[in-house]
Amino acid sequence: MTELETLLKRADDNLPSSLDKLFALLRIPSISTDPAYRKNCAEAADWLVGELKTLGFAATAYTTKGHPMVVGTSENAPEGAPHVLFYGHYDVQPVDPLDLWESDPFAPEIKDGGNGRKIITGRGTSDDKGQLMTFLQACRAYREENAELPVKITVMFEGEEESGSPSLPAFIEEHGDLIKADFALVCDTGMWDRDTPAIAATLRGLVGDEVVITAADRDLHSGFFGGAAANPIHILADILAGLHDETGRVTLPGFYDGVEETPEEVKKGWEQLGETDQRFLGEIGLSVPSGEKGRSVLELTWTRPTAEVNGITGGYTGEGFKTVIAARASAKVSFRLVGTQDPAKIRDSFRSYVRSKIPEDCKVEFHPHGGSPAIHLDYNAPFLKKAQKALSDEWPNPAVVIGMGGSIPIVGDFQKKLGMDSLLVGFGLNDDRIHSPNEKYELTSFHKGIRSWIRILDALAK
Amino acid sequence: MTELETLLKRADDNLPSSLDKLFALLRIPSISTDPAYRKNCAEAADWLVGELKTLGFAATAYTTKGHPMVVGTSENAPEGAPHVLFYGHYDVQPVDPLDLWESDPFAPEIKDGGNGRKIITGRGTSDDKGQLMTFLQACRAYREENAELPVKITVMFEGEEESGSPSLPAFIEEHGDLIKADFALVCDTGMWDRDTPAIAATLRGLVGDEVVITAADRDLHSGFFGGAAANPIHILADILAGLHDETGRVTLPGFYDGVEETPEEVKKGWEQLGETDQRFLGEIGLSVPSGEKGRSVLELTWTRPTAEVNGITGGYTGEGFKTVIAARASAKVSFRLVGTQDPAKIRDSFRSYVRSKIPEDCKVEFHPHGGSPAIHLDYNAPFLKKAQKALSDEWPNPAVVIGMGGSIPIVGDFQKKLGMDSLLVGFGLNDDRIHSPNEKYELTSFHKGIRSWIRILDALAK
């Protein structure tokens, strides 16, 4: 047996005790949004500190204005080995409505998941306690085999991820030195499917703006004034309709500055995933891709920027009818960004466009929301390639490098504040029901997740 | 003195007693929308029946599901004289907020209105008790001079005008024979200004439709789906933006069928009114006419059809931001109609246009609202010309034939159900504060209103 094989066997042998540990953590109802569970959050943090210590880490639960931040640091690693920061979170979502749970959310069980699969049930199994424990139990396999950890490891377990991470930016600001590493491993995402592991290499950024258009100084009777008085809903509709051309491209000047085409080899990898427009859209009751023509749904949602109206309101919106010409109308518009699109420039371009469409006797106001650039790893970065190979060795199908349509704030903070890239690897599945009743994690996700980290740590050191 | 001069003098001499009668009616708080005033509405109806009897009319307060409908019929008129139906309403608007009234709304007074004018204060003075009493006291002048009424007169006083006339259609249906005349005189409108009487000869019709567009079968996260999933707000904005071309014309096929240009002489009459875009729009905080280019605000609001969005809603409209792609978006759209535009055809054309813009995997639903054609008198109709001359004889400035941008349902019902045209003549002024605290009617409106009807009745008989 190679050293790696020994470690993997250790993980296999440890599975029962790994589950015991996971269950102990799952039994703590560490709901971060509900002040009633404050003590439980502290208890989960302390439990993790204890675990880290048994792994030989120096570990502390740092007090924040909210729930504690657990940070642990491993003993020194071999000369020249990289330093990685592992991130996970120990807090969980609330469990209402409780009556929809088939068993107690805080009394985890192993159940038959159908088709011969075993599942671990309970709140936090997939999001994110099960996931973070895959990493700790990978470290334990090294420890128990008396093997030195192959890379220097800092871990950071947050207790407020489910409540918007209010204490996180200040913590990074204050304790940046403590957690700064060569790159981060973030374990809070999913696999492509049951057999195909995934690494998220791109995350779209976001810029939001609320537009409020005011025309007359009061709501008007459309009989008396209709045909002569400006209608702000018409102005707004015209503006929003003009945001896209007939090919689905966004019309704002300079919008596509910094947007690059995805390398052909990456797109080929996606083609092998067998995703179709029909399946992707069929799940939500649609069938025709919207947006830019001639691109697949994966390309559209992972690598292309968008302009979307998230909300619109104006005039009478109640039951029945009121023949009013509204004094004002407003819309919330957001842009998903990719590549090196500059949030500030996009916002400016949007506002200039809107202003150019406002009649001289009408007014417009803007209320900004968010403004974060896209995150994009170099597709050829060695640590990405190494992790991809390690994951491919473990799972039935090769690991795929994917994009994510949404943003993950922590990844942006690591990038912006610590100049640190993140490798997003996780073992959740789409049907894990995170944030919903009957959350579960596949036993396979847990077991092979531990094995995956053993392989990744091994690969990263080489 | 001619017979007409004698009648006018009688009206002058009667002014104090005419005011006594008006005040008696004004003191009855006949608020139709509030069940607490049900008895007062009946009392006002009975009071009017009494008045009509003293004028020699056969009069009855007909019971309806709501408040009574007063109908009175004069003795026979001279052979060959026309038969007119006079319409007014005895119900009034509520008086809240009461603390904004400078005196008791149901204790009418004559006050100094500034600039040497006298005003009659109280709820219903202008809308519509003061107005309907001008007609009754014109009839009284004839009666007291022992002059035969020159035309056959039926009067109809409604008690539910301020609550949407729920009983009116059924009453016309059932008692059509009772009220059918050659044409109607409707006294519930205003003068152009203090010195210029007005006859409304056109009223725009109305068609409303609510459009509900459904895309995905649930609200979507714009990160995961943005760029690939149809956004119903985009579809709706595109539809609404396409309703008008760059000259402000409505783009629906066939929309302008039945729309005719206003005769030059009528437009010339309007030019003399001195209305400017700036004054008209300045009052509501605007300055640039919207809608069809190259037409005055009076032309736009009185004689041109419109398409207006009265309300729009979709997605997240609360405080802050939510990056959602909505499952549905909806708008309430109404069309003001003129000439012989056909409401059903306009609705069909609109719906066809909307359907043509709905992607094949999205759905659209419509909810109809209203659907009444425009009312338009023949500008050369003899009764209009006669009334115009009579009014011009009474007031400092000649009477102007105007349009009205809105609809008056009763006029449509008379037209549709009884094939009866209506002449809209009233003596209210724009600053009468109808529906608001401190409603008033100019003493001049009341006095010269009575004299105006004497002249009109005289003229109609010739």
TrEMBL record, chains A, B:
It comes from the Bacteria. It holds the Pfam family M20_dimer. Residues 211-361 form the Peptidase M20 dimerisation domain. GO terms for biological process: proteolysis. Keywords: Hydrolase, Metal-binding, Protease. InterPro entries: Cyt/Met_Dipeptidase, Peptidase_M20, Peptidase_M20_dimer. One of its GO terms (molecular function) is peptidase activity. This is Dipeptidase. It comes from Martelella lutilitoris. The lineage of its organism: Bacteria, Pseudomonadati, Pseudomonadota, Alphaproteobacteria, Hyphomicrobiales.
